[in-house]
Design brief:
CATH superfamily of the largest domain: Electron Transport, Fmn-binding Protein, Chain A
Number of helices: 3
Number of strands: 11
Strand content: 35-45%
CATH class of the largest domain: Mainly Beta
CATH topology of the largest domain: Pnp Oxidase, Chain A
Strand order of the largest sheet: 2-1-5-10-11-4-3
Order of helices and strands: HEEEEHEHEEEEEE
Distance between the termini: 50 Å
Radius of gyration: 23 Å
Length: 193
């Protein structure tokens, strides 16, 4: 290779490296912008209840939505490897507890799997992570006793979507009279995007 050809080849490699770095910076900037806009989508904060046998959990979630009017269907996206996703898959059911607008601390309490389970003498679950719960439905699924409303759902369909499993459930039970419910914007929490 002649010295001129070697110099041209070196310049071409340098330009390619600079172009790759610029593309990476543009990709990172796009990703940050995309997350900011996605975080701005209004979402609530809920507790998803799950149970299979004696194992039980409540998990904070914001990816919850009514997806159909007739029949009444609710969708919830669960992290694929979460305790809740495993329990919902095994039982075919879940609950949604709607939180009061001021219940930020409750939402934070359930971002990790429940390890503190209190039961009555007859085995009924009475508290999770120090918060009173009520069992609902034939499976005894947990709902937060202080929830302003709750839904019990039977899974009709699941879809694997990358990092999450989207579970669609038909509403089979309901309770409470929701007023002001907790929304993601009421906290400093960020999830999604």
């Amino acid at each position: 290779m002649t010295p001129d050809a070697a110099m041209a080849n070196e310049n071409e490699n340098e330009n390619e490296r600079n172009g790759n770095e610029q593309n990476e910076r543009a990709d990172e900037e796009f990703d940050r912008h995309r997350r900011r806009v996605l975080w701005a989508l209004p979402t609530g904060l809920y507790l998803v209840g799950s149970r299979h046998g004696d194992e039980v959990n409540l998990m904070t979630a914001n990816l919850v939505v009514q997806v159909c009017l007739e029949p009444k269907l609710v969708g919830v996206a669960l992290e694929r490897d979460s305790v809740t996703a495993r329990l919902v898959a095994a039982s075919g059911a879940f609950t949604i507890s709607l939180l009061r607008r001021g219940d930020r601390d409750v939402a934070r309490r359930f971002v990790k799997p429940v390890t503190d389970v209190r039961r009555a003498r007859d085995g009924v679950i009475v508290a999770l992570s120090g918060h009173p719960v009520t069992e609902v439905g034939p499976q005894g699924l947990p709902v937060l006793s202080a929830a302003v409303g709750h839904l019990a759902c039977s899974v009709t369909r699941t879809e694997q979507l990358g990092s999450h499993t989207f579970c669609i459930g038909e509403v089979s039970g309901v309770g409470g009279e929701p007023d002001e419910v907790l929304r993601m914007e009421d906290t400093r929490m960020h999830y999604g995007g």
